[in-house]
## 1
Amino acid sequence: MVATEAPVAVVTGAAEGIGNAIARRLAQGGMHVVLADIQDHKGEMAAREIGGTYTHCNVAQENDWNALADDLTARFGRLDVLVNNAGINPAPQDFADYPLSAWRSMFEVNLDSVFLGCRMAMRAMRKGGAIVNIASAAARKPVGDMAGYCASKAAVCMLTKAVALYCGQHKLNIRCNAVLPGSVETPLVDRLRDAAPDPDGARKAAAARHPIGFVGAPSDIAGMVHFLISTEARFITGAEFCVDGGLTL
Ligand SMILES: NC(=O)c1ccc[n+]([C@@H]2O[C@H](COP(=O)([O-])OP(=O)(O)OC[C@H]3O[C@@H](n4cnc5c(N)ncnc54)[C@H](O)[C@@H]3O)[C@@H](O)[C@H]2O)c1
């Protein structure tokens, strides 16, 4: 077992994008961060850079979560924070042509993962802790050709509330909150824009859709997560925080 006095945090989807920024922020705050992802090379590099630990975990797979739980017990004997960040948003698709297989895989990665992660955390956070689920502004503001994404993220918000209530009712001392980002410059968003007929126009239009006039940076989301896991947020549970430049107004 690694002798660490530092609180231990697991951040899923931490090899790049928002998850990577969250992992960095938590490590800067003195936590030992376990970066969980399926991009092993990027994940290992990121873990080395921030002094954390990388683990391969496909968040849609129950076996991978079980292995992660065993690993946490063996290495650290504790878990204090879980950030369910990993998610996918494939290119927009016409609703009438939406394949059931795409719908199901969206829900596996975006929603089943949060269920599996929260369940693991409830078992592993023996002295209590904090869970933050990364949903999306799309949970509140629908996008017609992203039905699966919107629905999966809206479900993450309700799951967050149910988990918070359960943890309170069972005196687990675990808080659970959701963060709903607007557009944030990450590889996920780059891929969506690059697939658009006019990528530059799409970038400008994205900024214009946000009343604040620009899209977010991963650090904007990381700052909110860092606040939510801190003792300053000790009275906050089951809540949703839009970090979206006013997109959902
Ligand atoms: N970027 C945005 O504008 C935006 C807006 C709202 C919500 N979000 C949400 O924020 C989260 C992070 O988004 P991002 O933009 O950083 O995405 P990204 O694609 O840039 O990074 C996602 C990370 O998750 C990992 N990942 C994907 N599937 C996985 C799986 N099955 N198991 C483990 N890891 C997996 C990827 O390897 C990658 O490292 C997602 O849940 C996304 O829906 C993003």
Note: The pocket of nicotinamide-adenine-dinucleotide is lined by residues 12-13, 15-19, 37-39, 57-60, 85-89, 109, 134, 136, 181, 183-184, 186-189 (CB under 6 Å).
## 2
Amino acid sequence: MEITFLGTSAMVPTKNRNHSAVLLRYKGENILFDCGEGTQRQFKIAGIKPTKITKILISHWHGDHCLGLPGLIQTLEKEGYSKTLEIYGPVGTKKRIKSLLGVFDSAKTIEIKIMDIKKRKFFENKDFLLEALPLKHGVRNLGYCFTEKDRRRINLNYVKKLGLSKGPLLGKLQQGKAVKLNGKTVSLDKSTYIVKGQKISYVTDTRPCRNALVIAEGSDLLIAEGCYLHELYERAKEVMHMTAREAALLAKQSSSKKLILTHFSQRYKKTDVLEKDAKKVFKNTLAAKDFMKVKV
Ligand SMILES: [Zn+2]
Ligand SMILES: [Zn+2]
């Protein structure tokens, strides 16, 4: 699993930071969390083809999280995007995208499936699960998490000792099914083991709240906004954002393993001060930079 930070700025971009966008690559999926203005150019600089995108998850409809959509869609049309582009977002997303795409002349050559998220678990396949819950930002805003499913693997040493090498039988074991060898049932506990799936959560533009905690719970990686230093706590409360230290507290309370801060206010030229502030509460913290890649 690979995460690429394509934009780490809050409402106003800076010389070194573009608006919000995070790409998660997993097997054949390329899931884009938010699509701030200029995101398609960030793809170019990162050397990733935007036609690889499979799903776009919009947290909310403030411009810094969605204004990159029209340009990106126009480019996908031009590049002959052949998949069905899935766009998810809070209730109202369908209506907003339709009016957004109605503003300019579009070839309308690509298929777009837009979904307003109305329930927590909104996507599931054999490999992973996507969930969303409303946060506290004064407008409809969703926190997201991606949870990889646990996988059963074969304990090769054990099955070798048993002399079990037939593909179909190993396949059955991997599916957790009972297998008999010379009339005896092969122990599933000994012949296989479980690899725990990873969890990535994305919590931005919110005050700390119960749903943020639920979304972040037990994350291997929590991506959260660290918009301000704690000295601007009152400001953060007023505009319904989190300080870096509050993001750290969220990481700690949710028993997350790692925290990466993003969505930084333009007032901070360098973000190491925010990282330092958060580390007082949660050590395993990193401040994201545009184009930073992280393997999970
Ligand atoms: Zn924002
Ligand atoms: Zn916002």
Note: The mean pLDDT is 95.
